[in-house]
């Protein structure tokens, strides 16, 4: 505040101005002391605040008041219940308290926030007139799978059944549920490396692929043995790491038997091995039979079973030192609780063609005075019946030992008979010209 006196010189003017200003300041201070400060209304620093916290974490709801004076600060919960009055806790729980880092702060602190704490809290100034500030508390809850409301981690179903897999989840916001099929197979472009805990990684380490639609339920209609695997539901809502649950589905089906060689030929005195491939779930009983008797391991037989892959077994029997009695029909039997299946194969005697050739060789004759005509011999060995294409036939054609100075092909060729049946002896046919035969007989009689 300055007062001007035009008749004074500048020096006197400045001195008077300073004196008057000091007097006015002292007067204002005295008046303020006597009559009090001006009546300033209380106010909040911000009208409304949103606070977000993860469940089980602590939350701080801010409330700063300017010019509170002798007024009261009151906190109320989402249901209108009184929580605190000034810095005193009213509600009967130790999770709520007032924190005042500065004199104008009346912050509400909540320990280990629960989902039920979510809502709008009110910081009020009273008693009259009432001013209020709203603080909205949002509580986020990580995704969680409820085990007792979800499908079991292991279940057996029959081929052709409809399988319903359920993954009941909770969380705030609502989690998204994805389904995967995973297992220990070679990965490809559509399969990504599986992740999870160490135990899971040890069991199913290699891949997982997306199956089904998003949601808490996945349905597999008319399930087949090829759907037998481990399925995983994975829930995620962005609050924390995703959670998952593994469900092993075993598909049971009756046995299937395959014989790689329905017919096997072998010579007497040698060994042979019969093989049978069995696929089933579960694989309970498998064995070989011969003449309605189960083959047991002994000095005559060696029975072995080998794992070929999931649900597949190779059953073999080795027969030592074959005899005539060992030739016949052998049956592979497989059965489980869903059914039984049999398949038979035949072991037949195989005759070596070299031995047949040596026993059926054409004799060599030397005839004086005239060159005989050329002859031919054709030998048929163990020709099977026409309805057995899997057996092997051996045919050999040869000429006799007569000389042929013209180096011409024989004039008469013996034909092979096609009437032989399975199990009959070999036939040998030799055709010789009549003139040649007469000459030979004459030479022998001389």
TrEMBL record:
KW ATP-binding (keyword) present: no
InterPro entries in the cross-refs: Ig-like_dom, Ig-like_dom_sf, Ig-like_fold, Ig_I-set, Ig_sub, Ig_sub2, Neural/epithelial_adhesion
Pfam families: I-set (PF07679), Ig_3 (PF13927)
Domain named Ig-like: residues: 42-125, 142-244, 255-348
SUPFAM superfamilies: Immunoglobulin (SSF48726)
UniProt keyword terms in alphabetical order: Disulfide bond, Immunoglobulin domain, Repeat, Signal
Region (Disordered): 380-424
GO CC annotations on file: neuron projection
PANTHER family in the record: CTX-RELATED TYPE I TRANSMEMBRANE PROTEIN, DPR-INTERACTING PROTEIN ETA, ISOFORM B-RELATED
Name of the protein this chain belongs to: Protein amalgam isoform X1
Lineage: Eukaryota, Metazoa, Spiralia, Lophotrochozoa, Brachiopoda
């Amino acid at each position: 505040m300055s007062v001007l006196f035009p008749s004074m010189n500048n020096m006197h003017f400045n001195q008077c101005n300073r004196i008057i200003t000091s007097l006015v300041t002292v007067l204002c201070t005295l008046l303020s002391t006597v009559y009090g400060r001006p009546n300033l209304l209380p106010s909040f620093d911000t009208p409304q605040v949103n606070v977000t916290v993860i469940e089980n974490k602590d939350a701080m709801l801010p409330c700063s008041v300017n010019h509170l004076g002798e007024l009261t600060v009151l906190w109320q919960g989402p249901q209108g219940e009184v929580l605190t009055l000034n810095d005193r806790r009213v509600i009967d729980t130790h999770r709520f308290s007032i924190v005042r880092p500065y004199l104008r702060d009346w912050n509400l602190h909540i320990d280990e926030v629960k989902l039920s704490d979510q809502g709008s809290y009110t910081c009020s100034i009273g008693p009259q007139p009432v001013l209020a500030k709203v603080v909205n508390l949002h509580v986020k809850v990580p995704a969680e799978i409820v085990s007792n409301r979800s499908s079991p981690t292991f279940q057996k179903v029959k081929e052709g059944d409809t399988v319903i897999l359920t993954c009941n989840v909770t969380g705030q916001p609502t989690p998204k549920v994805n389904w995967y099929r995973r297992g220990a197979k070679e990965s490809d472009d559509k399969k990504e490396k599986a992740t999870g805990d160490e135990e899971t990684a040890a069991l199913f380490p290699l891949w997982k692929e997306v199956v089904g639609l998003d949601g808490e339920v996945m349905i597999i209609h008319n399930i087949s043995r090829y759907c037998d695997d481990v399925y995983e539901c994975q829930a995620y809502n962005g609050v924390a790491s995703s959670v998952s649950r593994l469900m092993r589905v075993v598909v049971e089906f009756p046995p299937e038997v395959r014989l790689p060689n329905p017919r096997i030929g072998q010579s007497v005195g040698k060994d042979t091995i019969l093989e049978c491939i069995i696929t089933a779930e579960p694989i309970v009983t498998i064995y070989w039979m011969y003449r309605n008797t189960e083959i047991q391991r002994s000095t005559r037989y060696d029975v072995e079973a080998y794992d070929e892959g999931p649900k597949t077994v190779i059953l073999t029997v080795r027969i030592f030192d074959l005899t005539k009695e060992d030739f016949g029909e052998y049956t592979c039997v497989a059965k489980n609780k869903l059914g039984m299946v049999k398949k038979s194969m035949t072991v037949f005697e195989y005759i070596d063609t070299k031995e047949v050739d040596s026993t059926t060789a054409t004799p060599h004759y030397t005839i004086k005075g005239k060159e005989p005509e050329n002859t031919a011999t054709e030998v048929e060995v163990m020709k099977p019946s026409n309805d057995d294409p899997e057996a092997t036939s051996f045919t050999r054609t040869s000429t006799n030992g007569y000389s042929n100075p013209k180096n011409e092909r024989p004039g008469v060729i013996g034909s092979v008979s096609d009437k032989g049946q399975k199990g009959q002896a070999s036939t040998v046919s030799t055709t010789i010209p009549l003139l040649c035969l007469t000459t030979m007989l004459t030479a022998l009689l001389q």
